Protein: IFNL3 protein
Organism: Cochlearius cochlearius
Amino acid sequence: MLCLGFAPLLALALGATLGAAFPQQALKSCSLSKYQFLVPHELKAVQKMKDQFEDIMLLSDRKCNTRLFHRKWSTAELSVPDRVMLVEAELDFATAMLGLPAAPGFAETRQRPLAFLTQAREDLRGCVATEAPSHQPSGKLRHWLQKLQMAKKTETDGCLEASAILHLFQVLNDLRCAALREQCT
């Protein structure tokens, strides 16, 4: 009888020891399947924000040179680790731009898309850490990442924000593509 009580106690102690030795994030598997088919209300929130932003832009006279999202290659051409790295960079950029100060009405409109994109970025970071911690980007991706860094240094926040918001559906499609893990379109 003592052995029966001792086995569960030993298993519990061993589990606690292993849990301390391996952080929870390392044990967490990479699952992006929830991004294969985006929820309609999330897409509507992004569309509403984009429409409102386009209305605001009509009233401004911004002249932007950034063409970050005009690429000569498609996400489908990248390897799965490259797709994940691309989307992580895009989500970092988009969430940073949506986090900038804005007029009260627009700040409220972008809260839901910002929360969704922030959650997607966190989920993606778990994948980068577990699946490709030492992956080196391909030449195509490396060039785009350099272009992104250069734009951050040379463009105004307004132009960067416009680029991020106007191309959010491309970012969402890239997220879907990374979640598919197979060939995507």
Notes: DSSP finds nine helices and no strands in the chain. Residues 40-183 form a domain with the Growth Hormone; Chain: A; fold (CATH 1.20.1250.60). The mean pLDDT is 80. The chain has one domain: 40-183.
